[in-house]
Queue: 3 jobs
Job 1
Amino acid sequence: MILKKAIDEDTLLVGLRNGSHKAFEQLYHRYKRLIVGHLLNLFHDEGLAQDIAQDTFIKVWESRAQLDEHKSFKAYLFTIATNNAYNLFRKAGKDEKTRLGLQLALQQAVNQVEEYIFQKEHLELLHSLLSLLPEKQRQVFRMAKIEGYSYAEISEQLHISPNTINTHIKRASSFLREQLLNHPELLLALLVVQSI
């Protein structure tokens, strides 16, 4: 059964490379949901995911003559979709309207990425972002969010009030969000890694 599917896909890819609309439609229907799902993991925005998926398949059609039926078509689609997402981020850097639209989608993804960078294997990334904070803010944030100290324990050790601790944590969290939103290539790279 798997062999038959592989042969069918090779045949479809040869057809696509030769300009067959029918082969293109079959591949489109086979992979569209998968690509949209991948893009939804990146943006958490159905409309944006659909638009980028559409652009992905247009690119496949336009570059069909260069297709290699012996290479993974799924990997090829994921590469194009991810490149299209990067291009959208680059465009957002130059176009205010695109940037505003993307910020709404990215805001939803930031919380997910914050959880991701708090995982043990990604602490290096978190520490590199935290190194940009003022020393006291970094110390309070690390104690509360990474080491798990309570506000009372931090207050006792650092001789600062719980309100000051709360202010440091809010400012540090805001800074992290800002870094991720102002450097969408970092956010996108993290989201791509998460979705693999």
Note: The chain has a mean pLDDT of 75.
Job 2
Amino acid sequence: MSVQRPDPARDAAAVREATEQLLESVATLTPSAVAEPSQLPGWTRGHLLAHLARNADSYVNLLTWARTGEETPQYADQESRDKDIEDGAGRPLGEHLDELRISADRLAYAVEQTPPQAWAAQVVMRSGRVIAAAEIPYRRLIEVLLHHVDLGIGYTCADLPADFAVRVLANVIDGLSGHEGVAAVRLHDTDSGEKWTIGAANEPDLTVSGPRTDLLAWVTGRSKGEGLTPVPALPLPVLPPLG
């Protein structure tokens, strides 16, 4: 499984589709459901929705940096990022929907205004990771689709677009391969028959098998390994959080 190169135009189109699907799902919620727990520890659905809106704005900042050459941090700082999420979490459902739409439109416009040469510009993520601006639409796609799962409103990893599941699984495995701090595991995708090794060992003692979306759910922290079969029958190791 090879890691796919970013394609800003294609990825931005996928973001638009995923955002519309998210908005349709969120619009079916009852007003009280926004304050209920999401599947992310410590966050309500309102926290997740506020995060998604502000995350869109954060990528506008990075695209501004790429377009103008003027350093524009993704977020001003960790404290203000957290405060914006906390302050926005308690909004009524209608306001959340408005914020999601407006922030998504701002990001779509920023993508449209980015000239071809700017996609090669290097920008710095909140984590400190340096990426090419061309990765931004794909990274937003990850946020929209995986947090749609995290809302816990019926959309699961099994519902993710097949091409996205393949791509994200390849990216996550690539990041975990050869990593000294990761448990050595052989992954076996029973859908395709493909096998990969994560961690630093060449020949892991543990093989974890299952359908692609169940593997993806586990390696991204969206499940504890439901649907997967470990051989030998040992508890699945804890993997590092998706960065």
Note: The first helix runs from residue 8 to 27.
Job 3
Amino acid sequence: DEARPGAVPWAVVRKQYRLHYASTPLRGKTQAGAIIAAVASETGIAIDALKGEQRVARIARARQLAIWRVADETELSLSEIGRLFHRDHTTVLHAIRVTNQRRGADVRGYGGIPVARSEGKTAANRAPERGGPR
């Protein structure tokens, strides 16, 4: 295979790509580390405990607060935030919702007012009433 005239070899493109992304800051991860450290110092709980497995209420609330603040103050995705805390993105979403309800704020639109279960269902989707026609 002959290279096209004026084409840049793939090895050069790959090297330029790596150099570019090595020089750019990680999208909010350094800021997230500072937020986690701030929450740790405010609550008196170690950073390792915030990222750890313990489910003690005091630690879990501090972890949820840290997750909420990272979601509020950075542009990281739920999955990226989850990786910082060694959690799944659904756990991150739960932490944001719980903290939204606790604080009365609504970060990223994940809190909101709970909708009653019966609202929005069409007649076809409703559970059949007992004692109906026989």
Note: Confidence is low (pLDDT under 50) at residues 113-121.
